[in-house]
Design a protein that fits this description.
By secondary structure, the chain is of the alpha+beta class. The protein contains six helices and 18 strands. The termini are far apart. The mean pLDDT is 87.
Length: 369
């Protein structure tokens, strides 16, 4: 028979009681809850900080890309003769041109089905409907050998009559060229230079020349000829689905699709900087697109602004309450031309960063005439 001391020893070695286990589990759960809360809170702060940093980077990159492109605008077409190109009618093309079976309007009878308008201006800003982003179209020639225009010696009677300029230097097969006579302008593609001695440029066949003798106007002697190179820089920048998007010439003409450049860009605004006093000083900023050569000669700079948004949705501190990440009156959604268009309005559950700069149009400042 076991002694009383042996029974006591076994009772002491039996382990923890149920109550002790429950208390231990409770203490462990409390610790886990505290650690999880600290982790979630820290992650929210980290996401908020990194989101604001991402908006900072995206906005800076978008502004840099736009500024770099605008600085090239107007090269080769910064002449008063090119800036005179104009037309009458909504959506009409100041430069008449043909491309792969379709004309611009004019000479296409209606805007429906016509090619997009082509303006020989360095930068064209389209002010879209209130509350929406602007678009910026940039144009520049790419022929470094033909920077200045030449003149026509003999009348080009039809769209297929050979061009006889006062010199063919700098023109090559496949180059695009614009004929300009006052406000009337037309584009052709050089298909052959049969005899350098005769100083003729043939423009028959190819994507840019109508195989039929169509309604390209006649250009008399003295008309200007601008060489654009094989592929001019013709690009349009817009903001679509919170992305800065670029359509190059092939996309504008419908051969390819626009490409996304920078994410988290929600608005873009632009203004023309004009020298209205004739003293080479920008004294007016406005949204009015010039319609005459004299008006375009006043444009010396472009003010551009972009609004970038963080990718992190920040919940209100009060569940179901108003958003607090960006409040009404926040300086981050203002620019020199006013207030950005904030998707969904303010207050917002996203953080924003606004960027703006002024880009001098150096090719307009250094224009030859």
């Amino acid at each position: 028979m076991m002694s009383a001391r042996t029974h006591a020893t076994r009772r002491r070695q039996a382990g923890m009681s149920l109550v002790e286990l429950m208390v231990g589990m409770l203490v462990g759960l409390i610790g886990i809850i505290i650690i999880a809360h600290l982790y979630v809170t820290n992650d929210q702060y980290q996401r908020s900080t990194s989101g604001a940093g991402t908006a900072q980077v995206s906005g800076a990159i978008a502004l840099y890309m736009l500024e770099r492109e605008i600085r090239q605008a107007g090269f080769g077409v910064n002449h008063s003769g090119a800036l005179e190109c104009s037309c009458v009618g909504v959506g009409c093309s100041p430069v008449r041109y043909y491309y792969k079976g379709r004309w611009s309007f004019p000479p296409n009878a209606t805007l429906a089905g016509a090619r997009p308008a082509l303006t020989l201006a360095p930068v064209v800003i389209v002010q879209n409907a209130a509350g929406s982003t602007d678009s910026i179209t940039i144009f520049a020639a790419t022929d470094a050998e033909r920077v200045l225009p030449t003149t026509l010696l003999e009348t080009m009677a039809t769209s297929q009559t050979a061009i006889k300029p006062d010199g063919i230097g700098g023109f090559d097969m496949g180059n695009l060229a614009v004929m300009a006579s006052g406000t009337t302008c037309g584009l052709v593609q050089i298909s052959a230079i049969p005899n350098p001695v005769t100083q003729e440029l043939v423009h028959v066949g190819g994507d840019w020349n109508d195989p039929a003798i169509a309604t390209m106007p006649a250009f008399g002697s003295g008309s200007l000829i601008f060489g654009l190179g094989t592929t001019p820089l013709w690009r349009r920048y817009t903001v679509v689905s919170n992305k800065l998007q670029m359509a190059d010439m092939s996309a504008i003409l419908g051969d390819t699709l626009p490409i996304d450049l920078v994410d988290d860009i929600v608005d873009m605004q632009a203004l023309y900087g004009k020298d209205t006093g004739g003293d080479d000083v920008v004294d007016t900023w406005d949204t009015v697109t010039p319609t005459t050569g004299a008006g375009w000669l006043q444009v010396r700079a472009i003010r551009i602004a972009v609004l970038a948004r963080s990718g992190n949705y920040e919940r209100p501190s009060t569940p179901g309450g108003a958003c607090e990440a960006t409040l009404v009156g926040s300086e981050t959604v203002n620019w020199s031309g006013g207030t950005f268009n904030v998707p969904g309005g303010l207050p917002s559950c996203y953080k924003y960063r606004g960027f703006e700069t002024i880009v001098p149009l150096r090719n307009m400042i250094w224009r030859p005439a």
